[in-house]
Write a structure and sequence with these properties.
eight-stranded antiparallel beta sheet; seven-stranded mixed beta sheet; 22 strands
């Protein structure tokens, strides 16, 4: 860990203390394979306070904090390191009393033992670990965030289907606070890789563009230039994959959301005009000023940030309560040797809250 990372752990940012989301002791330690502020891994930027714990598929996963289950996916098979695996992780998200969310990723298909709306207690069994999504090996990804994209949008197709999965793009303009009814026009070309040929039909309406061929920024820009007041990105994956699109550093002028391919098929196959009823979901936007090297680079609305977390050490010799922050390739819980060893070993393997 860098000096800055260690100083931050020692108190520059106060960490919330939670229990480990798995069983582990000195006889059966779990290894943290990626900690905070990873220099070569994925835990950077908005994921800088995340943790990855190596564990066999089927290992019991417990709630690190009490709360209510607000989102869950339990349908994907084992993943890998392909680009298409990135949005195919089984997960569960729990909303805590203070409005933050605990997220548990890469769960086993069929391993979820809770359901949306269920109240869970600290230490309660919620799922079994797996290897789904973007992963190089079986592990549990755990973090706490201040924003959950799965709760950003309420989306229905009038007279066809209600409350279908939908998420706002990170660069979306604020979604309407009250339900708005909009006619959906299919973009021509469908993927929006060039200027839309049907601008007269699109103006003042919602436009459906399909993912693929070009990046999100290009297709959204072409849709807005054509006069669309709402942009719907249809995922092109054949399963129920959905995620929050990125691609802009600043918010665009109109709302942008993504829907699943099966929802888009209902629109594409319809012989009659299709109307969407949309509004902001439970999760409202957060305006962020993100700086790098003293210069503002982003001003995004629908983007999460991970929060600093430390873990409770429940057994501590004489009963003194402590917490620890695991770093990459450290034991959980830390061994006594790493606690009472040399100063260098202690600083590199453990930081107290």
């Amino acid at each position: 860990q860098s000096t800055w990372g260690f100083l931050e752990q020692m108190g520059k940012k106060r960490r919330r203390a939670v229990v480990l989301p798995f069983f582990s002791d000195n006889q059966h330690p779990v290894i943290c394979v990626q900690g905070n502020h990873a220099r070569t891994g994925t835990h950077r930027g908005s994921l800088r306070y995340a943790f990855d714990f190596a564990m066999k598929p089927g290992t019991q996963v417990f709630a690190a904090e009490a709360g209510v289950v607000v989102a869950a996916v339990d349908e994907f098979e084992d993943g890998g390191t392909r680009y298409e695996d990135k949005a195919r992780a089984n997960f569960v998200a729990i909303k805590h009393l203070d409005g933050t969310y605990g997220r548990y990723f890469h769960l086993q298909k069929g391993g979820l033992v809770v359901q949306i709306g269920q109240v869970v207690e600290e230490g309660q069994l919620i799922a079994h670990s797996g290897n789904s999504g973007y992963t190089s090996g079986p592990h549990l990804h755990y973090d706490v965030v201040d924003f959950l994209s799965e709760l950003t949008c309420s989306f229905s197709l009038l007279g066809i289907i209600e409350n279908v999965p939908c998420v706002a793009a990170t660069f979306s303009a604020p979604l309407p606070e009250t339900p708005v009814e909009l006619e959906i026009v299919i973009a021509d070309p469908l993927c929006g890789e060039t200027q839309l040929k049907n601008q007269d039909q699109v103006k003042g309406k919602a436009v459906l563009v399909q993912r693929g061929v070009c990046d999100f920024g290009v297709k959204v820009e072409h849709a807005i230039q054509a006069g669309a007041v709402f942009v719907i990105i249809a995922n092109d994956a054949p399963d129920n994959e959905i995620f929050s699109p990125g691609g802009f550093r600043l918010p665009v002028s109109e709302p942008v959301v993504m829907i699943q391919s099966k929802t888009a098929k209902l629109i594409l196959d319809s012989t009659e005009p299709v109307y969407a009823v949309v509004c902001a979901g439970e999760q409202k936007f957060i305006r962020r000023d993100i700086t790098k090297k003293g210069r503002r680079e982003q001003h995004l609305l629908y983007m999460y940030e991970t929060l600093p977390v430390c873990f409770k050490l429940t057994e501590w010799g004489r009963g003194t309560h402590r917490t620890f922050v695991p770093h990459s390739f450290s034991r959980c819980p830390p061994s006594r040797a790493s606690i009472f060893g040399s100063c260098c070993n202690s600083l590199s393997s453990l930081a107290w809250k």
